[in-house]
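Morning F.,

Quick status update on the modeling queue. The single chain you submitted on Monday has been processed. Sequence for confirmation:
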Amino acid sequence: MLTTKASIRIQGDLDPDDISRMLAIVPTYTLRAGESDRFGEVLRSNMWLLKSDVGNDKPLEQHIQSLFDKLRAKMPAIEKLRANYKLDVFCSVTSTGQGGFSLNPNVLLNFSEYGFTLEVSIVAIDGDE
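Structure tokens below.
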């Protein structure tokens, strides 16, 4: 079984509320430098995060495409943000047994068009657990 998740992260010396106003999007959550993320790691910079609302049983590229669809009309703001902040798409793929994913060229083009880095966390769980 394969489960997937994806989110847009904007990180740096930023005010998350300013990012929300610039994009006119309410984030899933924000974190400030010095706070711990869900893994207990203390953040060195502020972060604005928007999770995909696609189901975890859907292909990874559906998550990514849905996030970019929300940003498509926000290109002027994205241009300003990418000059000063780290923008990435953080993806999580969990598989029981062997698994993988693929991304079509149109989804890959969004990364370069919008200036986002792709970060992927892959977790394999032994099917006997």
